[in-house]
Amino acid sequence: KLDFIMSNSYPILHLDIISDFICPWCFIGKRKLDRALGNVSGFQINLAWRPFRLDPTIADEGEDRKEYLTRKFGAPKSKKFASTGQDAAAGTDIQFAFDKITRTPNTLNAHRLVRWSGEYGRQHAIADDLFSAYFEHGKDIGDVNTLIEIGVKYAMDETVLRAKFASNEDVSETRQLDAQARGAGVTGVPAFLMGGKFLLVGAKEPEYLNQIFSKAVVKLANPGHSADTLGA
Prior knowledge:
The protein is α+β, with helices and mostly antiparallel strands. The chain has helices at about 25-35, 65-75, 80-90, 110-115, 125-135, 145-155, 160-165, 170-185, 205-220; strands spanning about 10-20, 45-50, 65, 105, 190-195, 200. Strands 2-1-5-6 form a 4-stranded mixed beta sheet. A two-stranded antiparallel ribbon has the order 3-4.
């Protein structure tokens, strides 16, 4: 699990990953991105995770999953989500366990944790653990204790984390970044912003990601010689 690949010998592509941790397609997209990162050639990638909450209206303490799905979609959709998600996850080693999920959390605090983990260079790894905790183990990633457990695994201090979560540190900043993503036209996730200029939406196959990343590097290095599009 890499947080960044960086070298002075090659061009560096800055990649913002805009995602939410209760989005199954974001988990799939992250794992496919991991495979693409292993095949990067001729340039390096610097990663940063950015917040996007699928539903900012979810109560701070989260909601019962069945009740939430009924409110959101008219009837529980767990079985449909399970079959669709598992099929799409082929080749990613993800074992969705939708039957274990009893709560739909508000992910504001999960995004705060990832933001703080940037200081330790662990955003990418912690993001994977958040996805896995929720989708494979049915843990409530809106619960502070669950988040602290994940943070401590990556050498973050438990006492410091408890104090941060008890405060309003980075609450407004996280909400602002969420709003900025929506203002920039992000309506679905995962989304990948390359060099602050090119936006790709969806859980794409690794080979396609490698092609698009390579095109982005070339076009960012030669802005006067190409249109502001990466093409198919």
